[in-house]
Amino acid sequence: MLALMLCSLTGTLFVYQGQEIGMTNVPADWPIDEYQDIEALNYYRALEARPGTTDAEKRYAMESINLLGRDNARIPMQWDDAPHAGFTDADGAKPWMRVHDLYPEINVAKQEREPDSVLHFWRALLRLRKHHRDLLIHGAFAVHDDADPHTFVFSKTHGDRTAVVALNFTAEDRPVTLPAVKGLRGEVGQL
């Protein structure tokens, strides 16, 4: 859903390494020793060194590091289910930080074989964005039906063409009001 939103909005698109296969953040149960982000390490070590620091404060710090830490975008890319997630196959070599525990399930090679994978969805979105760049990258943006905080309906217009994007951020059907657009066509769930 967020990929569709990002690819439909104006401006430069940034895709972080692993985002295109749905890699997840560093697991919450990883200890601080698994992190490489010097800012996170310095923060945590300063907290540990402070007299009177409670276990609750340490847990909160780890939750914050896990949520906001830069290592989430630096974890090795998961290419396949081989050792080190295929990031390196050189004898004796290993990545700079631990590979995510989910690499056997979430990796490029597996998603290449699955037509409904996150990777194939991203590729379809990027093709759509490239094909309709006048609308999706440069089109004029307008929000519609903003009464429901669980939906996001907007249009992009360029010349005589308009694209309407209606996103539902819940698991339930939600009614939306689409703008009046001449020749509007499409169906629910269609790219």
From TrEMBL:
Glycosyl hydrolase family 13 catalytic domain: residues covered: 1-137
Gene Ontology biological process terms in this record: maltose catabolic process; sucrose catabolic process
Annotated signal sequence range: 1-18
The keyword Signal is annotated on this UniProt entry: yes
Domain of life: Eukaryota
Alphabetic keyword roster: Signal
Pfam families: Alpha-amylase
GO molecular function per UniProt: alpha-amylase activity; glucan 1,4-alpha-maltotriohydrolase activity; oligo-1,6-glucosidase activity; sucrose alpha-glucosidase activity
Family that this chain belongs to: Belongs to the glycosyl hydrolase 13 family.
Protein name: Alpha-glucosidase
Species this protein is from: Verticillium alfalfae (strain VaMs.102 / ATCC MYA-4576 / FGSC 10136) (Verticillium wilt of alfalfa)
